[in-house]
């Protein structure tokens, strides 16, 4: 079993999400309650959750484009690096 | 927008004179809520194929089977947590104003994610009817649904619909009325969060009932308890509950078993409910074919091709806009300047009106408004293509592609959408900044929107390009739009370093599938966008034209327009403009009046350069002959426009030969400007201060004049500086001929 950050997947690769961390680097990528401010959107609300199959569609700029279920979701690399997947 | 007073669901059936049934339309972004309401109620709410089109709640009133129904279009949200402005609007409406019923519009091609919101809606204690929309696409993908299964498992009515094809609408409304008639029988199922959570919820309920019984009259009970469990700060402050008012042992127990983050725990529970349900009721074949959308995206979002493709697409838009609309503009010009002016003069002469009224009507109203009307075809054509971009799904891709460039200015790609909308008219662009999560982004984006060249600036370009650059009008106009974008980036970088330090927040955005907008909906939304230019021409610009006429003819009996009030003001301003190459009182006066709305620049020029009465004698034509000519020349315009499309794509060059210049305005302009100073003038018009309506919109969105003041100051400086660089630089390079 190999774990890696979602942001490192190449185009066309698939994997299963095993961890979603949304916190800032200072709090170690955990989900710190206090960190959540108005304006923060939750990647989970858009379907990026633990257990989901994701496919990398485009990973060539500072945004990555993922396919989860039937939606295509663009997130920035910073967020993508905090999501861990298993291939 | 009218606010209703709060009411409860049960007085809907009991009251004798029935007030309208209030139905909230809620759902994820981009699932077709607005399209559905438009199809049902015949409204023209804005629709577009990207998430976040509706940012404010909108209403529609209509009747079905004799029952008045008020539909409320809510902004799309992924959940009912209180973190984004859309979520707060939707949630406050549902919780505080309590509609009689919720129609939950669900994207049938993406059931699981949509159900996550459904589960939250069901907790509000309001009957829910589900519209399983975009059913056509789901069927085309081979999905099958167990509708009865959804109904029994959720306790909500389900109706498959396709808003764009108008199917399932009657069934949906029937179901709505049926549900509303017996709300008690249609209570959504209460979904179980697992023993630990449910025990805690029960405990919390007991405590609140004891200590704050009044709360249960204000909020739906289960919703209130669940939100408090999740630690909803906004709600807690709203109901004035101290942080420690809730007994800690309830949470303590849960936290020990499930970790610190109760919000995540509850979200997970809801999500597994949604996922489990989707597994039960949706059957899809397990084949994975590469969809059209992904194939297009591979090219359009390509690292190297993305930006060139975006620029090329924009270029094509301008080229087509210009080529297609020009013959119609010319036609209106001929009509206004010829038969229309002629017959107005004749008619006024017949009733014995004094000479000055004839001059007011022909030089003031017809020249002023007429010259603006000439540009109506261009504006509509432009709106048509913008609407197409919005409806196709490319808008969201432009945001994706431009993200890197936007980062340079401390924004992210999402801000690009309000900027693009600004091409139609800056005002909706300013309102669209609401979809940005962060206040700093909103202000910064709004400050840059006036640099996006709006439809009202087109008339100026078209006039000057027609006079000076007849061979490649589309390209020259496109260059102005690109200049606006480039300067937005430069100014963004500048603001980021000065007024708005700090990082862009994270970017999350859904890219919709590509869709072919239907021709009727394209026309409808083009009309919605373009009509306010027409209304403006008929009201505002009419009034200003008359006012300008007076300014040009007062003090009473001035010999030369130069000595009129407006002329004098222009003379004062002119020296400031002379380093820019257009230091004439005529140009200055036009720019002064253009502050009200940029089209007025050409309206005023039309009035200033209008030939004195009698200068333009034409052979007298009978009314009948005139009518015939109007029809014949319109036919010619249609033909010419069609052949222009052909030549756009380089197949032929039928329409290449320029006609002789008729408009006196064009001729006069050719005498007073050079191509270089004309370009500098266009640059100035592009950049100089936002119009009055934008000022008001900024004031509304940000609650003070401060940001408009900033926009005004930097734009004036920028306009002057850029026009000077263009003119002086061009002269140095020897282009100033
Ligand atoms: N194929 C298909 N497309 C649809 C249907 N309903 C809506 N659409 C398309 O979906 C897109 C989104 O429609 P909107 O009505 O703007 O969606 P909305 O839910 O109001 O979106 P927001 O205001 O952003 O929350 C548009 O391109 C519509 O043409 C449908 O039943 N079938
Ligand atoms: Mg909408």
TrEMBL record, chain B:
GO molecular function: ferrous iron transmembrane transporter activity; GTP binding; metal ion binding
Subcellular location: Cell inner membrane
Membrane topology per record: Multi-pass membrane protein
Domain FeoB-type G, residue spans: 20-182
Its biological purpose: Probable transporter of a GTP-driven Fe(2+) uptake system.
Identification of the protein by name: Ferrous iron transport protein B
Similarity comment: family membership: Belongs to the TRAFAC class TrmE-Era-EngA-EngB-Septin-like GTPase superfamily. FeoB GTPase (TC 9.A.8) family.
Residues where GTP binds: 27-34, 52-56, 73-76, 133-136, 162-164
Taxonomic placement: Bacteria, Pseudomonadati, Thermodesulfobacteriota, Desulfuromonadia, Geobacterales
Keywords attached to this entry: Cell inner membrane, Cell membrane, GTP-binding, Ion transport, Iron, Iron transport, Magnesium, Membrane, Metal-binding, Nucleotide-binding, Transmembrane, Transmembrane helix, Transport
Binding site for Mg(2+): 38-39, 42
TM spans (from-to): 299-318, 365-389, 443-469, 475-495, 533-552, 678-698, 705-727
GO cellular component: plasma membrane
UniProt xrefs under CDD domains: FeoB (cd01879)
Organism whose genome encodes this protein: Oryzomonas japonica
InterPro entries membership: Fe2_transport_prot-B, Fe2_transport_prot_B_C, FeoB_Cyto, FeoB_GTPase, G_FEOB_dom, Gate_dom, GTP-bd, P-loop_NTPase
């Amino acid at each position: 079993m190999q774990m890696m950050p979602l942001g490192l997947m190449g185009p066309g690769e698939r994997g299963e999400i095993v961890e979603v961390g949304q916190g800032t680097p200072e709090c170690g990528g955990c989900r710190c309650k206090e960190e959540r401010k108005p304006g923060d959107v939750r990647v989970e609300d858009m379907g990026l959750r633990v257990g989901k199959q994701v496919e990398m569609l485009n990973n060539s700029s500072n945004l990555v484009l993922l396919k989860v279920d039937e939606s295509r979701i663009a997130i920035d690399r910073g967020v993508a690096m905090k999501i861990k997947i298993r291939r | 927008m009218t606010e209703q007073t709060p009411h409860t669901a049960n007085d809907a059936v009991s009251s004798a004179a029935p007030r309208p049934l209030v139905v909230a339309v809620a759902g994820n972004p981009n699932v077709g809520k607005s399209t559905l309401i438009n199809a049902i109620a015949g409204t023209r709410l804005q629709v577009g194929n990207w998430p976040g089109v509706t940012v404010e709640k909108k209403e529609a009133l209509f009747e079905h089977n004799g029952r008045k129904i008020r539909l409320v279009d809510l902004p799309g949200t992924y959940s009912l947590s209180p973190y984004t402005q859309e979520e707060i609007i939707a949630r406050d409406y549902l919780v505080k104003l309590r509609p009689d019923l919720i129609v939950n519009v669900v994207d049938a091609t993406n059931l699981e994610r949509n159900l996550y919101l459904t589960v939250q809606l069901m907790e509000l204690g309001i009957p829910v009817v589900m519209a399983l929309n975009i059913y056509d696409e789901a069927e085309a993908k081979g999905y099958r649904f167990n509708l009865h299964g959804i109904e029994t498992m959720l306790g909500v009515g389900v109706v498959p619909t396709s808003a764009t094809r108008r199917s399932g609408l009657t069934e949906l409304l029937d179901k709505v009325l049926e549900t509303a008639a017996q709300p008690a029988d249609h209570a959504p199922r209460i979904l179980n969060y697992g023993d630990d959570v449910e025990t805690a919820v029960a405990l919390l309920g007991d405590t609140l009932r004891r200590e704050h019984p009044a709360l249960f009259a204000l909020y739906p009970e289960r919703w209130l308890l669940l939100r408090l469990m999740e630690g909803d700060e906004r709600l807690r402050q709203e109901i004035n509950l101290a942080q420690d008012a809730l007994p800690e042992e309830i949470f303590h127990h849960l936290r020990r078993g499930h970790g610190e983050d109760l919000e995540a725990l509850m979200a997970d529970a809801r999500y597994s409910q949604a996922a489990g349900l989707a597994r039960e009721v949706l059957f899809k074949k397990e084949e994975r074919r590469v969809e059209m959308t992904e194939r297009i995206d591979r090219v359009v979002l390509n690292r190297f091709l993305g930006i060139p493709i975006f620029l090329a697409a924009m270029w094509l838009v301008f080229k087509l806009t210009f080529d297609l609309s020009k013959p119609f503009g010319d036609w209106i010009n001929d009509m206004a300047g010829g038969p229309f002016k002629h017959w107005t003069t004749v008619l006024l002469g017949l009733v014995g009106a004094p000479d000055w009224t004839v001059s007011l009507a022909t030089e003031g109203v017809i020249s002023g408004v007429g010259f603006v009307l000439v540009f109506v075809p261009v504006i509509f054509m432009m709106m048509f293509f913008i609407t197409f971009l919005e409806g196709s799904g490319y808008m969201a891709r432009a945001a994706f592609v431009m993200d890197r460039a936007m980062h340079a200015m401390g924004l992210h790609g999402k801000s690009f959408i309000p900027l693009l909308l600004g091409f139609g008219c800056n005002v909706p662009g300013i309102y669209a900044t609401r979809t940005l999560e962060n206040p700093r982004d909103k202000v910064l984006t709004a400050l840059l929107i006036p640099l996006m060249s709006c439809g009202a600036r087109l008339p100026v370009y078209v006039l000057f390009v027609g006079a000076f650059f007849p061979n490649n009008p589309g390209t020259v106009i496109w260059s102005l739009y690109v200049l606006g974008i480039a300067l937005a980036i430069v100014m963004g970088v500048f603001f980021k370093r000065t007024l708005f330090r700090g990082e862009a927040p994270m970017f999350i955005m859904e890219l919709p599938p590509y869709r072919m907008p239907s021709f009727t909906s394209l026309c409808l939304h083009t009309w919605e966008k373009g009509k306010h230019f027409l209304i403006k021409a008929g009201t505002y610009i009419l009034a200003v034209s008359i006012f300008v006429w007076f300014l040009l003819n007062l003090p009473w009996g001035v010999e030369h327009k130069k000595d009129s009030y407006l002329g004098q003001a222009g003379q004062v301003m002119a020296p400031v403009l002379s380093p820019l190459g257009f230091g004439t009182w005529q140009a200055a006066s036009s720019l002064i009046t253009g502050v009200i709305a940029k089209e007025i620049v050409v309206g005023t020029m039309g009035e200033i350069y209008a030939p004195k009465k009698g200068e333009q004698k034409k052979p007298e034509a009978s009314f009948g002959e005139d009518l015939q000519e109007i029809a014949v020349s319109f036919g010619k315009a249609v033909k010419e426009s069609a052949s222009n499309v052909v030549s756009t794509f380089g197949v032929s060059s039928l329409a290449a030969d320029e006609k002789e210049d008729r408009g006196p305005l064009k001729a006069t302009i050719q005498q007073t400007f050079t191509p270089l100073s004309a370009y500098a003038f266009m640059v100035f018009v592009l950049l100089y201060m936002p119009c009055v309506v934008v000022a008001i919109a900024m004031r509304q969105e940000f609650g003070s004049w401060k940001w408009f003041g900033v926009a005004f100051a930097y734009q004036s400086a920028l306009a002057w500086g850029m026009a000077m660089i263009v003119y002086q630089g061009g002269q140095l390079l020897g282009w100033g001929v």
